[in-house]
UniProtKB/TrEMBL annotation, chain A:
PANTHER family: NA(+)/H(+) ANTIPORTER SUBUNIT F1, NA(+)_H(+) ANTIPORTER SUBUNIT F
Lineage: Bacteria, Pseudomonadati, Pseudomonadota, Alphaproteobacteria, Acetobacterales
Keyword terms, alphabetized: Antiport, Cell membrane, Ion transport, Membrane, Transmembrane, Transmembrane helix, Transport
Highest taxon of source: Bacteria
Subcellular location: Cell membrane
UniProt similarity note: Belongs to the CPA3 antiporters (TC 2.A.63) subunit F family.
GO molecular function term, any single one: sodium:proton antiporter activity
Native source organism of the sequence: Neoroseomonas eburnea
Transmembrane annotation, as ranges: 6-26, 38-57, 63-87
Protein name: K+/H+ antiporter subunit F
InterPro entries in alphabetical order: MrpF/PhaF-like
Membrane topology type: Multi-pass membrane protein
GO cellular component: plasma membrane
TrEMBL record, chain B:
This protein's record includes keyword Transmembrane helix: yes
Family annotation (PANTHER family): ANTIPORTER SUBUNIT MNHG2-RELATED
Disordered as annotated region, ranges: 102-125
One annotated GO molecular function: sodium:proton antiporter activity
The keyword Transmembrane appears for this protein: yes
Superkingdom, natural source: Bacteria
The name this protein goes by in its record: Cation:proton antiporter
Pfam family, one: PhaG_MnhG_YufB
Transmembrane segment boundaries: 12-36, 48-68, 74-95
InterPro entries: PhaG_MnhG_YufB
This protein's UniProt keywords: Membrane, Transmembrane, Transmembrane helix
TrEMBL record, chain C:
Keyword Membrane attached: yes
Name of the protein in its database record: Na+/H+ antiporter subunit E
GO cellular component, one term: plasma membrane
Family the entry assigns: Belongs to the CPA3 antiporters (TC 2.A.63) subunit E family.
Species for this entry: Neoroseomonas eburnea
GO molecular function: monoatomic cation transmembrane transporter activity
Record NCBIfam families: PRK08965.1-4
InterPro entries: Cation_antiport_E (IPR002758)
Amino acid sequence: MSATVLAAAVLAAQIMLAVAMGCSVMRILRGPRAQDRVLALDTMYVNAAILMLVFGIRTGSTHYFHAALLITLLGFVATAALSKFLMRGEVIE
Amino acid sequence: MTHAADLPLWAALPVAALLLLGAGLALAGSIGLVRLRSFYDRMHAPTLGTTLGIGCVLLASMLCFSILQSRLVLHEILIAAFMVITTPVTLMLLARAAVYRDRQEGSREVPPLPPAAPRAERTEG
Amino acid sequence: MRRRLPTCVATLGLFAMWLLLTGNVSPGSLLLGAVLAIAGSAALAALAPPKLSLRRLSSVPGLLRDILVEIVRSNNAVARIILRPGGAKTRRSGFVRVPLDMRSPYGLAALACILTATPGTVWVEYDSSDGTMLLHVLDLIDEEAWVRIVKDRWERRLMEIFE
């Protein structure tokens, strides 16, 4: 009983997160401006981290936790660097 | 799903509910990214996923692993703390970059830099 | 002792992070964690952050609870705005300029984080010469109401803690 409840919830959550990532990819492709694309990329990073956590619950392994931690770290650095680039046109000044 | 049968029903139900709530909020945020009209409106949408969305999923994960391994698994707090610190910083950086770019192009959507005149306003508060 | 407080907090925070990350409490791991935490906070102190003075720590738990309630409430509100069919016509969003009385950099940082982390408001910029900040609000009904919310709900309480 608990296995079927959990399996259904995990599957539904994975589908929702996949659709959410699809939405952000759509915004990355459509733009219209660079800041829209950066914002969508940041959203995609967060959605990917959540998806990794859901995978962890599905498989019962804690390895996915480290993947999620790395994704959030890289997402922060990437977005910060891209925002800096949008502001000044160069990352290192 | 080999391990899921080990989870008692009273734990499986909250884990499932938290998972659905978290994923639903992340989905709502990403839908907002597509549906809202201007960039400054869209800036609000991802906050749904980055606050309560990932929070719910982290809580579900903590509950699930704590019961499966019958010890307190708390390392999800690291991701939560990290998100709390980084999300406002990235959003503020991005908002400032967008405002800067719009001002450079003379867009009328953004208010101009404040003139030195309305300085008297702040003494009242 | 007051002056050392940020360093102590940083050391304890780094040590807790190390314990959470490794997940074991063997003597070797504890020792390595302690060394790393002390080295890390010494590096932080070398950056010479502005002086932090905290007063009235007793009001921090109430503030945290209110932030959590506010985040849940505005998550609900923003999700409704996004998912409402064809609601874009009636809703108005825009910028509000809020005059602030708080000058403590830590207090301002805390206010910025609170406002940006709640869905529906984003802190855009702060002008230190005349102490005003620009806020973008998704569901802007009344500018005056938002200025009052920021000042009464958050700024006054943060000033109690940080100034």
